[in-house]
Design brief:
This protein has about 250 residues and is of the alpha+beta class. The chain has five helices and 14 strands. Strand 11 and strand 12 form a beta hairpin. The structure holds biotin. Acts both as a biotin--[acetyl-CoA-carboxylase] ligase and a repressor.
Length: about 250
């Protein structure tokens, strides 16, 4: 099925813009991309910084028959769609960090290549709409690196030729369409094994940062069938939902 793609020269945030359009009834499959975001939003109330031409920033509206309660694992499935899109473009070293960051191991350190922010509309039971926001770094300006609190890298660093953002957007959208339709049919269970294959920290030692500021060491056991992270800690096997913890390689 077709996406309705709208390209804006500049917007505060494609997610904020599309949330507003969605409330006004804009069609399923609407995609808004922006050359420049002036107030990009990240997860956990953080901001997403980017520079003109330095990243691909877009949001997609996907309407679901089910309520928000049925959408657990959605953000993982979006990550899987993107990692497959990047692999299809020859960037085969890209991996996933739970719940949905795109990472690459570069010069011995994990670097973030992009992130996903999903915002939901509708209640837990009735039909719902997801605004799926995606930011992919192409080129990181050195001024930006100084403002970001973790190692980041642009996709161009992994590619012999500069990546064409039109091709990248088209490849991401086609993978998203496949994955989101399948997710609406069968949920995350269908993707559990595939997701695990791309998981950067699968069966690795990690440190978990809890919301209260505590750090807990553990070993990743895998992802559960609804998308939560399973970790072996000193207190035994524990299960975490997205938003409860943040994961660092140990
Ligand atoms: C994260 O890693 O914290 C998520 C970053 C998501 C950024 C994208 S850029 C397009 C869309 N619009 C936004 O304001 N945020 C998302």
């Amino acid at each position: 099925s077709w996406f309705h793609v709208q390209l804006l020269a500049q917007v505060d945030s494609t997610n904020r813009y599309l949330m507003q359009e969605s409330a006004r009834g804009v069609a399923h499959g609407t995609c808004v991309a922006a050359h420049l975001q002036t107030a990009g939003r990240g997860r956990r109330g953080r901001s997403w910084l980017s520079q003109l031409g330095g990243s691909l920033t877009f949001s997609v509206l996907w309407r679901f028959q089910c309520g928000a309660a049925g959408l657990s694992g959605l953000s993982l499935v979006v990550g899987l769609a993107l990692v497959r899109a990047l692999h299809a473009m020859g960037l085969t070293t890209v991996q996933l960090k739970w719940p949905n960051d795109l990472l690459v191991l570069h010069q011995g350190h994990w670097h973030k290549l992009g992130g996903i922010l999903i915002e939901l509309q509708g209640d837990m039971e009735g039909p719902s709409a997801a605004v799926i926001g995606i930011g992919l770094n192409l080129e990181i300006a050195s001024e930006l690196t100084a403002q970001i609190d973790q190692p980041v890298l642009g996709l161009n660093a992994l590619s012999a030729q500069p990546i064409n953002p039109n091709v990248l957007l088209g490849t991401c959208l086609s993978q998203l369409a496949l994955h989101l339709s399948q997710f609406a049919e069968s949920g995350f269970t269908h993707f559990q094994a595939a997701w695990t294959r791309y998981h950067a920290f699968h069966q690795q030692p990690v440190n978990l940062l809890l919301a209260n500021g505590q750090t807990v060491p553990g070993q990743v056991l895998g992802v559960a069938e609804e998308g939560s992270l399973l970790v072996e800690t000193a207190h035994g096997q524990q299960r975490f939902n997205a938003g409860e913890i943040s994961v660092r390689s140990a």
